[in-house]
């Protein structure tokens, strides 16, 4: 049960689907939300990594905040928690903690992308 709960916290749009009517129209809308949220792929991490290397921590924090908001709608609780911890470390200028937190957030984001891609293939094949 812990594994299922853990898996559900990576990516879970069932509740969103239910709130939107749980019909074909809802599936179409949620599929678009998933595609749009995942469209940037790894670009946010590339941009945030560059911002950190270039000593622009506020820019990196904004990127993660934005990512957390867009992907959080997909039920990505683990990514949200990892991103929040990273944003906090960046804001507090805890340079020693940032690399490990960045790696954790990046790994969680990769899981979200993989689960989103799988979900899209099962529920909303491309037209």
Automatic annotation (TrEMBL):
**HPt domain boundaries:** 46-107
Which Gene3D superfamilies does the entry link to? Answer: HPT domain
A GO molecular function assigned to this protein is: protein kinase activity
Which GO BP terms apply?
phosphorelay signal transduction system
Enumerate the UniProt keywords alphabetically: Two-component regulatory system
The protein's name in its UniProt record: Hpt domain-containing protein
Q: Which organism is it from?
A: Duganella callida
């Amino acid at each position: 049960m812990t594994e299922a709960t853990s898996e559900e916290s990576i990516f879970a749009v069932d509740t969103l689907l239910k709130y939107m009517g749980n019909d074909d129209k809802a599936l179409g809308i949620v599929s678009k939300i998933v595609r749009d949220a995942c469209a940037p792929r790894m670009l946010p991490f590339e941009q945030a990594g560059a911002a950190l290397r270039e000593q622009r921590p506020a820019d990196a924090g904004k990127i993660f905040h934005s990512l957390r908001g867009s992907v959080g709608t997909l039920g990505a609780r683990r990514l949200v928690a990892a991103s929040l911890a990273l944003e906090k470390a960046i804001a507090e200028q805890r340079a020693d903690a940032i690399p490990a937190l960045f790696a954790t957030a990046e790994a969680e984001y990769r899981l979200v992308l993989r689960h989103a891609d799988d979900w899209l293939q099962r529920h909303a094949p491309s037209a």
